[in-house]
């Protein structure tokens, strides 16, 4: 009897074929089986970003990736070693372009970056040319950066072009992000002079990508909304380690202006100053509570960032600076829905709300503030009054009741 022909095993087939336990030919956007059955064809994302010493290669099973992703979402203590893209950013079908064809969508995305998308990173006139021109030039040498540029442009178009089918751009964004991460991960332990500019740029891009990616179904649930924000915060803290390593090589390069912040004007409104002062007094009254340091340290960085925003600094970096400076123990308290930690997170929403003119943030501040308000028990809500009035106006109770 002739031996059965050997075949390569693959775990990258579509969801439908896996469920029916049949071999998938992995054609995209629709495999042959689903095409024949006239059924929807969906692929899992193959490359969630993982940054761990000695991590398994991208060929590891989906189950292992999912387990790793879950562990990172519940453990803040390991965030200095793990870097995981929030689950909402890699959960959709990834589109593909047939080999040999001219990809007009990618050309559109690159043009859109140079026209508009780059502006989200510009803090001043000195950084404008870097993000508009030099980053795309660097991307020609480092494919992971080019995929990152195209991914963020696709998300930007998905969020700002209402007349175009959102799913097309989102699928394209996920596809490029998957490819970017697969190429990016091997370089994490080898940041050097030749790739530092690309690593720095991509780390910045992927942070905005995680903030901007459209919310998944069910994210209107208050706890889910808060959990998603925590994931983004943890991710931003992990990315910061890449920025620090790469920055050592940028001091004498054309990217040096990205490291120079200059003196930012700080102007905190009196009502905000009073609200922060009252909140700190409540925390001091707790005595020797173990969480007090985390509370006060987080309040300090939120207050500092809010003063900069009120002083005229309107870049997304004002929000990410807070996330980077938050103590890991504070994030853990938020994930446990600790009342005071949630109140302080509400104060962070006043920063996000003032940055809503940025397309990647929009109404995120109001969404999280509403989620915190709905979770808090009545005895804690008085600490949120200033936040709710600042975001929703003096008659916020009436407004929330009618939404």
From TrEMBL:
Alphabetically ordered keywords of this record: DNA-binding, Nucleus, Transcription, Transcription regulation
Question: Which residues, if any, are the signal sequence?
Answer: none
Any GO molecular function: DNA-binding transcription activator activity, RNA polymerase II-specific
Pfam family name, one: Fungal_trans_2
Which domain of life does this protein belong to? Eukaryota
InterPro entries for this protein: Fun_TF, Sterol_Uptake_Regulator, Zn2-C6_fun-type_DNA-bd_sf, Zn2Cys6_DnaBD
According to the entry, every stretch annotated as the Zn(2)-C6 fungal-type domain falls at 13-43
Q: List the PROSITE patterns hit by this protein, alphabetically.
A: ZN2_CY6_FUNGAL_1, ZN2_CY6_FUNGAL_2
What is the protein name for this chain? C6 zinc finger domain protein
Q: Which organism is it from?
A: Aspergillus bertholletiae
């Amino acid at each position: 009897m002739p031996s059965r022909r050997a075949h390569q095993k693959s775990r990258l087939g579509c969801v439908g074929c896996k469920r029916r336990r049949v071999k998938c030919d992995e054609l995209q956007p629709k495999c042959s089986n689903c095409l024949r059955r006239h059924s929807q064809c969906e692929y899992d994302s193959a490359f969630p970003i993982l940054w761990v010493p000695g991590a398994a290669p991208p060929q590891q099973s989906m189950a292992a990736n999912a387990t790793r992703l879950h562990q990172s979402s519940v453990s803040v203590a390991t965030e200095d070693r793990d870097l995981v893209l929030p689950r909402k950013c890699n959960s959709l079908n990834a589109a593909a372009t047939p080999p040999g064809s001219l990809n007009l969508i990618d050309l559109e995305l690159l043009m859109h970056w140079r026209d508009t998308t780059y502006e989200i990173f510009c803090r001043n006139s000195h950084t404008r040319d870097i993000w508009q021109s030099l980053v795309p030039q660097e991307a020609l040498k480092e494919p992971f950066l080019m995929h990152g540029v195209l991914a963020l442009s696709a998300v930007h178009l998905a969020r700002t072009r209402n007349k175009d089918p959102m799913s097309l751009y989102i699928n394209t964004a996920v596809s490029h992000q998957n490819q970017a991460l697969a190429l990016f991960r091997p370089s994490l332990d080898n940041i050097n002079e030749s790739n530092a500019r690309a690593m720095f740029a991509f780390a910045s891009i992927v942070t905005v990508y995680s903030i901007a990616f459209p919310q998944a179904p069910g994210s209107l649930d208050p706890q889910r909304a808060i959990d998603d924000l925590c994931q983004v915060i943890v991710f931003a803290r992990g990315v910061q380690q890449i920025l620090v390593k790469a920055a050592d090589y940028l001091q004498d390069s054309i990217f040096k202006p990205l490291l120079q912040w200059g003196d930012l004007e700080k102007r905190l409104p009196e009502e905000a100053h009073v609200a922060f002062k009252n909140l700190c007094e409540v925390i001091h009254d707790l005595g020797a509570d173990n969480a007090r340091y985390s509370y006060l340290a987080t309040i300090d960085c939120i207050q500092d960032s809010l003063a900069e925003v009120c002083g005229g600094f309107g870049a997304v970096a004002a929000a990410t600076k807070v996330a980077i400076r938050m103590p890991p123990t504070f994030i853990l308290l938020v994930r446990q829905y600790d009342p005071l930690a949630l109140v302080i997170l509400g104060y962070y929403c006043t920063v996000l709300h003032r940055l809503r003119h940025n397309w990647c943030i929009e109404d995120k501040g109001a969404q999280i503030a509403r989620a915190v308000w709905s979770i808090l028990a009545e005895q804690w809500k008085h600490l949120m009054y200033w936040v709710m009035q600042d975001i929703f106006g003096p008659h916020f109770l009436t407004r929330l009741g009618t939404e």
